[in-house]
Design a protein that fits this description.
Oligomer: heterodimer
Helix content of chain B: under 10%
Strand content of chain B: over 45%
Radius of gyration of chain A: 14 Å
Structural class of chain A: mainly beta
Largest sheet of chain A: 7 strands, mixed
Number of strands of chain B: 11
Distance between the termini of chain B: 37 Å
Largest interface: A-B, 28 and 26 residues
Number of helices of chain A: 0
Helix content of chain A: under 10%
Structural class of chain B: mainly beta
Order of helices and strands of chain B: EEEEEEEEEEE
Chain lengths: 116, 109
């Protein structure tokens, strides 16, 4: 049981290049999330998908697009990378069924992205 | 920004001592969660406390919640070197998660 898998683990891009970060989960979770983590800033939500077929903006969506390909996979795309997007990107998933709410998120180990 | 604040930003203690870190948040909540992040890894869920609870225990972890002050604290008792990590609080109003800025804990053997 792999949990949440992110690919690639590391990537270096030049300004203006595009790329897609991949995320897959095998826990049959319905909600998935993309975050960026910058020093001193904690994690900030970029986009999330509450269920298959839906996506919504988070706190810092500018410069990114997402696709919920199916229940397992949620990708993050940078169309024209900028140095300000240098960060560590985390994908997470959770179930939102069950009583009482507050189900925990399960995280991948991140993609370290540098944009020159 | 909806991010919460954590205090202190960094904490260094000897093995066996207790570690306390605090979190303040901005929104009304149904629950608050604490996560741990080891260096180079993703976050791992530790414990959840609901808005109608004031204190919760799990092993060596004790969490308190004061909704009137919009604050929470995490106490790790009898710390171990393996507890060295960053600790984050998180709230999830309307299915969006807001994480605090984190406390970096170093436990010296």
């Amino acid at each position: 049981n792999a949990g949440v898998t992110q690919t690639p683990k590391f990537q270096v891009l030049k300004t203006g290049q595009s790329m897609t970060l991949q995320c897959a989960q095998d826990m049959n979770h319905n909600s998935m999330y993309w975050y960026r983590q910058d020093p001193g800033m904690g994690l900030r939500l970029i986009y999330y998908s509450a269920s298959e077929g839906t996506t919504d903006k988070g706190e810092v969506p500018n410069g990114y697009n997402v696709s919920r390909l199916n229940k397992r996979e949620f990708s993050l795309r940078l169309e024209s990378a900028a140095p300000s997007q240098t960060s560590v990107y985390f994908c997470a998933s959770r179930t939102t069924t069950g009583t009482g709410g507050g189900q925990p998120q399960h995280f991948g180990d991140g993609t370290r992205l540098s944009i020159l | 920004s909806q991010q919460g604040e954590e205090d202190p930003q960094a904490l260094s203690i000897q093995e066996g001592e207790n570690a306390t870190m605090n979190c303040s948040y901005k929104t009304s909540i149904n629950n608050l969660q604490w996560y741990r992040q080891n260096s180079g890894r993703g976050l791992v869920h530790l414990i959840l406390i609901r808005s109608n609870e004031r204190e919760k225990h799990s092993g060596r972890l004790r969490v308190t919640l004061d909704t009137s002050k919009k604050s929470s604290s995490l106490l790790i008792t009898a710390s171990r070197a393996a507890d060295t990590a960053s600790y984050f609080c998180a709230t999830d109003p309307l299915n969006q998660f807001y994480f605090g800025t984190g406390t970096s804990l170093t436990v010296i053997p």
